[in-house]
Write the structure tokens for this entry.
Amino acid sequence: MRPLPTLLTLALAAAFGGFAATAIREGLEAPAQAAPPPAIPAVTVPAVAALPASVAGQQLPSLAPMLQRVTPAVVSVHTKQTVRIRNPFANDPIFRRMFPNIPQERINESLGSGVIIDAKNGYVLTNHHVIEGADEVSVTLADGRTVKADFIGSDPDTDVALMRIPAQNLSAISLADSDALRVGDFVVAVGNPFGIGQTVTSGIVSAVGRSGLRGLGYQNFIQTDASINPGNSGGALVNLNGELIGINTASFNPQGSMAGNIGLGFAIPVNLARNIKDQLIANNGVVRRGTLGLESQDVTPQLAAALKLAEPRGALVSRVFAGSAAAAAGLRAGDVILAANGQRVDGRDALRNFEGLQSIGSKIALDVRRDGQALQLNATLREQPRSLAGADLDPRLAGASFGELPERLRQSGLSGVVVESVARGSRAEANDLRKDDIILAASSGNFDDLPGFRASFTRAPAQLLLRVQRGNNVGNLALR
């Protein structure tokens, strides 16, 4: 056994270094009457950056217990799409003999996120833009399993998509009431940013009911400063109870989304996503929207003065379609809609956005100004037409079908209708109409959307001239 002074010396050496230990050992071995040893210099112990496990016996707050319940319900979404390579020499026999192995197709792959909302049925919510155009979609679960997903349906105008995965032992997330959210509530975003793996970020609700973002569809976003980066799309935004309050969908950066997060992230409220999900299940993958059935325009300062309005805002009704919800409610051309169900309406786009977020049969209370007088009208939204056959409008359009312009294009400043299809050998094809053409204007009359396009053909024009946007080019087509 080592003598006690030696053991004490070793212990002190480990704690304070050789110098201090040597000084103490000499003091212990010196006679009792010897002079006291010199003062021991102060020893600096390096600090370690760490939080204590508890403070005054109280456990520190942590998101970990909540996230243990949430993260198994958040998945990574992988998509593959076969794209034809544009090769101007592909059909040249000499080129093909010289370069027989040049591929004519390529596979595009992308990554996103999704949320399991129904473990029994395997339902997964994600964004439409995550799976748009994909030939194959697979989902990787938090436990490492990868499962091929079945597409149920999607709604491009709200950017919501629904899939089903045939897997057992799934974990689902419970849904909150997103209408109860307040600015300042703490939130947590979970997803797969940049494909690096499941990642958790936190922040607060910065705003609710956010709209007016260019290039997106119908908008009622939750804004948050929790980091949302590329790959987070389709992931979960949850409250501190671990309940789903939104589907992460977009971030804003003036230098582009790939430049990273600057604290401006947007999520689709779960109440809206739930409504779209229910419609996709009930209507075989299709969303059916209600509409008032009217056309409107913004109120300019000049119009505000003429209409005796306190400020230049609201949607001025320019046309009410026969048999529409607006006609049944008693709306007239010249009325100004200032609010809908208590929600402020600043202009035409705000009214369209409100309509687009409602279902068929929704009851709408409209605050209206007519001839300087305030009144309230009640409307029940009716189904919005999804498509029109050209032959039902004018024989010169026979063989073409027309649909509503995607809302994201409307948010970019366009108005009109889109050509959904053109039959081979049809009169429309002979008149050079093509699929995906955007009809901006027509000699048949003014219109902004599909109901207006149909109404403009009440009387067939002697000469039918269409203003068409095809890609980045705009021109006129004279139909015969």
Notes: The first helix runs from residue 4 to 16. The two ends are 113 Å apart (CA to CA).
